[in-house]
Fold this sequence. Notes:
By secondary structure, this protein is of the alpha+beta class. Helix content is 27%, strand content 25%. The protein contains three helices and 17 strands. It has a four-stranded antiparallel beta sheet with strand order 6-5-12-15, with no helix packed on it. A hairpin with a 5-residue loop joins strand 13 and strand 14 (196-198). Helix 1 (2-27) packs antiparallel against helix 3 (224-259). The radius of gyration is 26 Å and the shape is elongated.
Amino acid sequence: MIEGLFISASGMLPKATRHEAIANNLANMEVPGFKRDSIFMREMMEAKKRLSGDYPDWRLNRAEGTWTDFEQGKLHQTGNMFSLALNGQGFFAVRTPEGVQYTRNGNFSKDNQGRLVDALGNPVLNNQGEEIIIPPSFSAPLIDDGGVIKVRDETRGTDQLVGRLQVVDFPELYDRNLKAQTPFQPVLSKGKQGFYIPQPGAQQVPAQNTKVIQGYLEDSNVEPVVEMVKMIDVYRSYEADQRAIQIQDGTLERAVNDVGVVRS
Length: 264
């Protein structure tokens, strides 16, 4: 009976972890460029046990960690010349107080120093790793799909080159056979404020076949209806384990108080 309590309680642990991941996805579904998280479950050893006829510990905690789904989100037009979206693989480089980090959120603006910055005021970097400065006489830049930034002098009809956005990618991120794809050593880990931090030694290359779209933002890839269905399913499953514990606890109470009583 004690083993039954242990199995039921252990079965609740991965459900609580899944619930946290789903709740985080729903909380960030309106954040541009957000990528949903899922739980990496230990299934291979359990499958081997089932095939060999051994008893699978399918009710025990099989949650190994979280992984991030980098599927492209939909693009929507904002009309803001500082809004940028990436159509394809890759990330914008941003200098944060913790160092250079990466993001898909292209909700940028121009600060009072003329720098191109993100919503938190962190400077966006060019392909030389330097800050991007918009000349004070120009209100908004022109950015082509290659990330080249120019400003136009309407009086003279000439363009002035400002720089080129740094858009980098991590090839190991898409290698399904790479050992680093396990939850214990992801190629990119999520940091604070939705930034991505590469693991030490992760290969960084300029993004290939990726277009920068000006005046658009990338939506999160969270599907609210799907996540809500998952949350209801997890909650009901969690509740079932909870009821199983209550029933077993009641049975133990009767065994101790009734069956174990010596009557004269």
